[in-house]
Amino acid sequence: MLWIDRKFTFDFPVDLYPNIVERLRGTPDRLEAKLARVPEKVLTRRQEETWTIAENVGHLGMVELLWNARVDDFLAGREDLMAADMERSTRLNKEARFNDQSIDKLLADFRQKRQSLVARVEHLDREMFARTAHHPRLNMPMRLVDSLYFGAEHDDHHLARITELIHILW
User: Fold this and answer.
1) Domains and CATH numbers, the chain
2) What is the C-alpha separation between 49 and 52, in angstroms, rounded?
């Protein structure tokens, strides 16, 4: 299923925020473990017209800018969250030439950016995690905890795709 086709309901209690922050914190470890023994040639091999494994990893690093911008939106009390520009994201992903970069660099970049995101949110109080803003694409209110859950689900979407690519290409 394409990411943009996913539907979400955010009906869990705000008190799950520590669990969701922990999921976000663990993604770099899960990703590094998944790719530890995958040969370089597999990381940059294309399956039809989809992103390579390296491009999926690079994308995860790039999208951290959006997650941080949305944290800024919540902290500032904005009514609307920054919209994701899918066309721009696809173009930037291509221009970044992730297949020409070492996987270690891509993983380190993602780890650094994710650690920064987690450091920003892990000590916020419960009331901040309950603050709401409007998500533009989903056209619904979203709490900060929901936005972080959305990010964790996005991580898992790409981890699942990477797993699929490993099985197909290796």
Assistant:
1) 3-169 (1.20.120.450)
2) 9
Question: Ramachandran region of residue 48, left (φ > 0), alpha (ψ -120 to 50) or beta?
Answer: left
Tokens representing 160 are 């699942």
What pLDDT does residue 86 have?
A: 87
For the record, the structure tokens of 165 come out as 């690519």
Contact between 24 and 145 under an 8 Å Cβ cutoff? The reply is no
Model confidence, pTM: 0.96
- Does residue 19 surpass a pLDDT of 90? yes
Q: Are 79 and 123 in contact, with CB atoms under 8 Å apart? A: no
Which of 59-84 are b and which e, b meaning 16 or more Cβ less than 10 Å from the residue's Cβ?
bbbbbbebbbebbebbeeeeeebbeb
Distance from C-alpha of 108 to C-alpha of 166, rounded to nearest angstrom: 20
- How far apart CA 119 and CA 95 sit, in angstroms, is 29
The span from the CA of 29 to the CA of 32, in Å, is 5
Task: Please classify residue 48 by burial: count the beta carbons closer than 10 Å to its beta carbon, then call 0-12 exposed, 13-18 middle and 19+ buried.
Answer: exposed
Looking at the DSSP bridge assignments, the partners of residue 142 are 133
Is the CB of residue 118 less than 8 Å from the CB of residue 110? no
As a whole number, mean pLDDT of residues 27-51 equals: 97
